User: What shape does this take?
Amino acid sequence: MKRVVILGGGSGGAVAASRLGKWARPGEFEVVLIDRSEWHEFRPSYLWVAVGKREPEEIRRPLAALERRYGTRVMRATVTGIRPETQTVETDQGNVEYDYLIVALGAELVQTPDVAGCEAPWELAPALALRERLRTFAGGRVVVGPLSWPYRCPPAPFEVAFMLKYLAEQRGVVERTHITVFHPWKDPMETFGPQMVEGFRRFLNDFGVHFERGFVYVRDDPGRRVIVAADGRELAYNFCHRGATSSEPRGDGDKELAIDNSGRLHGRSASLDAFTSVRDGVGNRRCGSPHDQARYGRCLCTLPSRACDRPDH
Ligand SMILES: Cc1cc2nc3c(=O)[nH]c(=O)nc-3n(C[C@H](O)[C@H](O)[C@H](O)COP(=O)(O)OP(=O)(O)OC[C@H]3O[C@@H](n4cnc5c(N)ncnc54)[C@H](O)[C@@H]3O)c2cc1C
Assistant: This one.
């Protein structure tokens, strides 16, 4: 029996495991999913946790449920390397060999200096910390934005701003609440094309949220309660929310992952070659970007070019 190893039990990994469980013929594959956590977390709902609309147990499930439902073997371990030449994954619990590999390890959060009163709900623990702080939220000058680009979920800072506006309305403090989204982009959602820019401009306008464009964050000055941009601009705040992620290399296979000027992730790595072999072996995955040709003049999907079925790739 061929073995499919899935790295990561987030959205990508859990969906891959469930699809393989449903679609593979009995006895066709052994599926092993490796994650350092025992939980599958639905990250978009961290924001709902932060504003008290969801509890942690409502947004996560034990990965062990995949074993019961789909026969996936779930292994709790930290992946430390990928060796495509020997078709082996290295983990802190030992090596695992694969016939096909699916890499779905997500994006790692960069550790940023802690500034009291600036929690960013990009993980469950800081979402809960933000919830605590929001208990006494009484409006004022609010700044929301990322420390750098790229980060998990580009619209999230905007969503946070809109949620805080809603909270200010609920608490009757909207009149004295001024919310600003700061961002290195020139336009809101700039790398997602003109329709998204237009849509988010409208949202900002409707919610009465200011967009501070081209604001490349360099530091906090907690004593004065300001954040400072590379060009010297300063934004004062009573309430600050900032966070960022980057795609740090995970194991040798990921070293060639690169972000292009439009902010899209491209891969030329061994791990994506391995991904391609999964596609060839068990999936019928096709390029999912038919709209790119119309919008950008070429296909921008993240499949290696020889794996993409579009002539304009
Ligand atoms: C606040 C927030 C809001 C969001 N809102 C939306 C939204 O509205 N719509 C949307 O489409 N997307 C949204 N996203 C983005 C979405 O959550 C991600 O795109 C998605 O989770 C990516 O899935 P993934 O499987 O690639 O990675 P992840 O879901 O990050 O999963 C990665 C998994 O790999 C594991 N892992 C990582 N490194 C290792 C290692 N070395 N060893 C073992 N295990 C490891 C992790 O524990 C994790 O379980 C949001 C994200 C955040 C943070």
